[in-house]
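Anyone able to model this chain together with 6-O-phosphono-beta-D-fructofuranose?
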Amino acid sequence: MIVSNRLPVDHVSGEGGTAEWRTSPGGLVAALEPVMRQRDGVWIGWPGLADQEFEPFEADGIDLIPVPLSAAEVEDYYEGFSNDTLWPLYHDVISPPSFHREWWEAYQRVNRRFADAALAVAAPNAIVWVHDYQLQLVPKMLRDARPDLIIGFFNHIPFPAYGIYSQLPWRRQIVDGLLGADVVGFQRVADGGNFARAVRRLRGYETRGNIISVPIDDAAAAIDGAAADADEPTAEAPMRHRSVGRRGHAIRTVLARPFPISIDAQEYQRLAADPSIRARAAEIREELGNPRVVMLGVDRLDYTKGIRHRMKAFGELLHDGAVSAEDVVLVQVASPSRERVDAYAQLRDEVEVMVSRINGDFSELGHPAIHYLHQGYPREEMVALYLAADIMLVTALRDGMNLVAKEYVASRTDQDGVLILSEFAGASDELRQALLVNPHDIDGLKAAIVQAMEMPRRERMRRMRTLRKRVLTHDVQRWSATFLDALTREDHHDPANRLD
Ligand code: F6P
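re: yes, here you go
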């Protein structure tokens, strides 16, 4: 069973009062959808609309169980605690997080509802895989009620350093919530290290390498008021990974380690080989006026993505005369996201003022410097854009992984194209042949853009070949198989599993 905030499809109202199901935004769904298509199982999540109840249904061969949210819960749990408290906190406080007790109340209530939905359908010993920062309390809620379950948790976004994490007034409850899982997965080595440190500082539990020893009595004692009514684990309960700790008391072990997520690389290769998509890529270049260089940015419109930084660098290059709008264009796809959260509305204004200024100052008739598209596109169009782009700009200020970087690489079956990649995106741990940049260093970013524009074809192809090898061998199928293997093996506290 998968439990995530969103289902893979959102219920959206179309033109003329019609309603339809559409693929949900974001990397989580893009990564998990192919995994679930290949397996039996159910997906529990919110259908993206407030105050609407839906019966379980099937979409594209996946069984879906919708969890309803009221309008007030969308405000307090989703827009509030998830995206205005946890999101900015976990992304190194790029935007200041807000702490509100009513939001925390809603977060607990909604986490309980997701846990109950899973408990209602979980077979004995079922594998339940919980996803992302919106549902960090669910693993413990499941364990307290049903110690027979095999519980995994994967955090798609960064886990912050303790100095930042410790600002959270409910920091202990969240750590306890996560420790309900058998395996807690992170994107990067550093995220797992930050989590282990938070566990040591807040709970004093022993951590050795990737293994955290959770005293069973302590865990039971920490059950919160709501969970106290549920069946508590007993000495007889079939709790996995249970043993005796160094201080002589009963412990269970939790594996906390990196599992860098990926994409369905074969699918991107397949699309990139499709003649109609290749023709569309050529058409896009033509529509752009056949410039010498096409640069591309593809992001949810989010302040973590560094969209303003890349535009500033491009604007300065135009100002310096290093490039001209006739010669070089930037296509920025910024898909709408979390539009009712203030920081997002403000970012949209800032980005749009910047686009207008740069276009006003540097465009030539028929040659806008920036093509700004505040829309989402189907995957086929995205692959055509990737194929049309000479340079892909991924300049996130902080990003768990960034799957766009991997999608670009997988789509470049022609071995061409240059990826400029922020060292603050998890993908930079693996994609070392990209031009790695610090997006705060505008001069460095400008130099990387110039380097990409001038890079000889041989070097572009050499780098792209290495990048492609990595993405094609480390795809999302391998990611999920590795996670599920770690989750289901009995010996996960084996030192062989350590990744120090
Ligand atoms: O990958 C991070 C993430 O927050 C996912 O959990 C989420 O589904 C996606 O980005 C898109 O965000 P949202 O669901 O808030 O639109």
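DSSP finds 17 helices and 19 strands in the chain.
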